[in-house]
Amino acid sequence: MSVSESAPLQVAAGVEESMRFTYNGLPSRVIFGAGSRARVAEELDRLGIKCAIVISTPEQSALAGELARVIGSRAGIVYPGAAQHTPVAVTESALLAVQSVRADGCLAVGGGSTIGLAKAIALRTDLPQVAVPTTFAGSEMTPIIGQTEQGRKTTQRSMKVLPETVIYDPELTVTMPPAIAGPSGMNAVAHAVEALYAEDANPIMSMMAEEAIRAFGKALPVIMRDNRNIEAHTEALYGAWLAGACLGNVGMAIHHKICHTLGGTFNLPHADTHCLMIPYSAAYNREAAPRAMARIAGALGAADAPSALYDLMQQVAQKKSLAQMGMTKTDLDKAADLAVQNPYYNPRPITREGVRAMLQAAFEGLRP
Ligand code: NAD
Predict the structure, then answer these.
(1) Cα–Cα distances in Å, from 233 out to 34, 171, 328?
(2) Ligand 1 centroid to 227 CA: how many Å?
(3) Any bridge partners for residue 148, and if so which?
(4) Residue 9 C-alpha to ligand 1 middle, in angstroms?
């Protein structure tokens, strides 16, 4: 019997919808484990990189110097000039450094800002990249790059910017003070939460998202008490990898849009904004995405997802309301206006009234 002649399959109610999907696997090689930065030289060799530009922020220049020593003659130049939001002027200066030694690859050691600069170089040169993340932001797993020029941040996707190799070493995240580690972890949780109700969600990414939320739910409270706890950092970095993969594979929704607006227009800090807003974004979608909510709640061992995310946020956030972050009521009106511009997917339709109410709750720091 041919396929066209066969009787339609009976699919249980509720299954069919989630079992129709498209999945694109992204090619990246991941080396994971405490001490794995010792394998950087081997991984550069594997990619044929003989003369790397070693990139960091000014604050992490000592670490960049340490890795440059580890890779010996493969270190062409150290460029400790990465800055937040990947300013194009910094990229242009780094490209001069690339040309000065004819670098044939990038080694980025740091958080999303540092990895952003390596991606910006790769976008323009197609040089291969080895990324050694030191926060939980997850940029190293995505083909996405955001760049800033004349105060405007624009984001694009290109496979050129996806790092070829990522080395996750939890010994490098333990140096984050809790005030950076906690919000950075919640930034990753936010990728996973939105992956579960993404328009193009698929079972693989949902499985990874749920596991990421579980890992952070376990690790973050420990890190806040004992920020050099290597087991907790290992668990969290594992979660960061999974959550970064989610961000790279499926589309995000209201939460990422509102955080982009708050960061871009009001200059609120990236990870702290994600950390504060994720309980409220989840609450916005509570009724519209019941399955995602059940999975998030289950991963956190709780009954209600937004409430459980709020409890986690309360444990890690330095600033626990938009008011504490310096926003005013007029800013909330402006942010709500901006967030409803350019329609985008979200499980619950985006309305100005709904977004304004969500921002008000976050402004007051109320339990959602
Ligand atoms: P960051 O890279 O800006 O780092 C914040 C600060 O922490 C810096 O001063 C840095 O030097 C320091 N730091 C980093 N790791 C440390 C460590 N282990 N110990 C001590 N200090 C450390 O912060 P981030 O949150 O990782 O990255 C934010 C940026 O990344 C934003 O610009 C965001 O847009 C971008 N991002 C991009 C993507 C993407 O897919 N393109 C994904 C996530 C984030």
Answers:
(1) 10, 8, 36
(2) 17
(3) 87, 153
(4) 48
Closest-CA residue, ligand 1 atom 32, reads: 85
- Asked if residue 77 lies in contact with residue 49, where contact means CB atoms within 8 angstroms, the answer is no
Residue of 55, 56, 59 best suited for mutating to test ligand 1, as the one with most atoms within 8 Å of CB: 59
- Residue 39's contacts (CB-CB under 8 Å, 6 or more residues apart) are 31, 167
Q: Pick from 55, 79, 84 the residue to mutate for probing ligand 1's pocket: most ligand atoms within 8 Å of its CB.
A: 84
pLDDT in tens, 189-242: 999 999 999 999 999 999 999 999 999 999 999 999 999 999 999 999 999 999
Residue corresponding to tokens 């009234």: 353
Q: What is the DSSP letter of 114?
A: H
**Is the full-model pTM beyond 0.85?**
yes
| Residue 138 to residue 132: CA distance in whole angstroms | 11
162, 178 contact by CB (below 8 A): no
354: CA distance to ligand 1 center in Å? Answer: 31
